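Here is the promised in-class demo. Please do not try to memorize the tokens; focus on the logic of going from shape to residues.
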């Protein structure tokens, strides 16, 4: 129906007014442009135009004009406030950078600085971060508002900040040398633009990026919709950023030169058991915004006990008809994904990268396979000879390490032996737990789930084996 398509100038006119309009207005305007008729608050359309009037119809029309948010020259809307314009997200092990409002502009102050960072209790590293945190300081804003971000560089090297996935004037893109000079040590730069989109985005250093991201300079950037629709609203809205580092046992400096063998895999800068659980009341609707700014690895993030829907990427919210079900969502380097589910099943549901080496902290690779060998007494001898740091897997895998009294190098954790409800575990790294409870008085860690009697896997009784004809 070519005659029903809006002309380019109509699209531009629509876009110029877009920021001032509610979503219903947008639908109405879109309907007018596509030849639909509007009766009261109900939109009726000729069947030929119906396909362009899905819930995202107007935004898809934008694609004919622009992939980058349209005209820069939009009139900012009033700054959005928590509790009034949006429900703040939850950042396990982290938080939002505070803001103040000056003459209708939301003003943030980011500080790039050295951070003494704890990956998990017993394992610290000297890193770089934003506002005192590594990977866990977020910027939270609202579609349509104008933001001004001051960036103060307290490192002794230059840096810049790139706003990843955001529509902005080219000169605000934060690429050292291409769109701006570097921010020298001690300098404060100013970034300012009007947000013309909503969703889950990221930010990171864009000068000597390989080194600076490997030292910790990444974070998440959340933009809430100006006019949230029922499908945008959830009860718990979590943010998780995935990263990977190399920290040799016995050292405190992460190694930016590592290209493949990362040994500390993190969520919001923390490795299990240092990751805060995600606490949820039964039947709450949950969103998890997952980003990946690892150096080299894509991570399939898997949640036990649930399926979820992939509802958005950093490109756009996915129309309901195109959202797809998963139990693991692959988040590639440089991507974000939003997933949603109803937490109707209580319990302690673990969630982790499904690449098994990414749930092991300080796993040593390139070592001799010890499976089936008797290595008792070997470690002290080897470490004596080479000055420490040798940590092979056990002769029966990680299992025997969990129970062995090992001489651990300083500032490292055993790969196995995390105390859990039913014994010691053999996991670390990119791993956390969704704690879904029938009753909650707050969102602090509620402890381990108390399983109803008869619902936990248990040792089979002889009588049961006999009855079911199982011979062992
Ligand atoms: Cu992974």
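The designed amino acids, position by position:
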């Amino acid at each position: 129906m070519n005659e029903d398509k809006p002309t380019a100038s109509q699209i531009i006119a629509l876009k110029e007014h877009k920021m001032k309009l509610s979503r219903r207005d947008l639908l109405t305007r879109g309907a007018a442009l596509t030849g639909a008729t509007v009766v009261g608050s109900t939109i009726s359309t000729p069947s030929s135009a119906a396909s362009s009037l899905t819930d995202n119809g107007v935004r898809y029309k934008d694609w004919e004009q622009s992939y980058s948010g349209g005209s820069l020259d939009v009139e900012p809307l009033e700054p959005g406030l928590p509790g009034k314009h949006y429900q703040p997200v939850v950042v396990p092990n982290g938080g939002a950078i505070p803001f103040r409002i000056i003459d209708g502009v939301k003003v943030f102050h980011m500080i790039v600085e050295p951070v003494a960072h704890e990956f998990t209790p017993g394992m610290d590293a000297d890193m770089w971060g934003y506002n005192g945190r590594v990977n866990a300081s977020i910027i939270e804003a609202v579609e349509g508002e104008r933001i001004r971000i001051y960036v103060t560089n307290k490192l002794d090297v230059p840096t810049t900040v790139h706003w990843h996935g955001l529509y902005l004037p080219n000169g605000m893109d934060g690429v050292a040398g291409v769109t701006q000079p570097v921010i020298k040590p001690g300098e404060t730069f100013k970034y300012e633009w009007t947000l013309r989109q909503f969703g889950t985005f990221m930010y990171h250093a864009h000068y000597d990026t390989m080194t600076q991201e490997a030292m910790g300079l990444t974070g998440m950037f959340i933009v809430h919709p100006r006019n949230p629709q029922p499908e945008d609203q959830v009860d718990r809205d979590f943010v998780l950023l995935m990263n990977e580092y190399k920290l040799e046992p016995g050292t405190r400096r992460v190694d930016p030169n590592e290209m493949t063998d990362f040994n500390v895999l993190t969520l919001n800068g923390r490795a299990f058991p240092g990751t805060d659980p995600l606490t949820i009341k039964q039947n709450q609707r949950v969103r998890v915004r997952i980003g990946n700014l690892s150096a080299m690895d894509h991570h399939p993030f898997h949640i036990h006990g649930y399926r979820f829907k992939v509802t958005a990427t950093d490109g756009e919210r996915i129309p309901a008809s195109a959202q797809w079900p998963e139990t693991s969502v692959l988040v590639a380097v440089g991507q974000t994904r939003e997933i949603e589910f109803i937490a109707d099943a209580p319990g302690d549901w673990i969630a982790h990268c499904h690449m098994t080496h990414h749930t092991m902290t300080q796993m040593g690779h390139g070592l001799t396979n010890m499976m089936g060998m008797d290595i008792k007494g070997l470690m002290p001898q080897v470490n004596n000879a080479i000055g420490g740091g040798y940590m092979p897997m056990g002769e029966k895998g990680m299992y025997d390490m969990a129970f062995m009294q090992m001489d651990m190098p300083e500032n490292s954790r055993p790969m196995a032996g995390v105390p859990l409800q039913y014994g010691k575990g053999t996991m670390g790294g990119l791993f956390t737990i969704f704690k879904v409870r029938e009753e909650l008085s707050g969102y602090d860690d509620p402890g381990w789930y108390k399983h109803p009697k008869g619902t936990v896997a248990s040792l089979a009784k002889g009588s049961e084996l006999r009855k079911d004809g199982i011979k062992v």
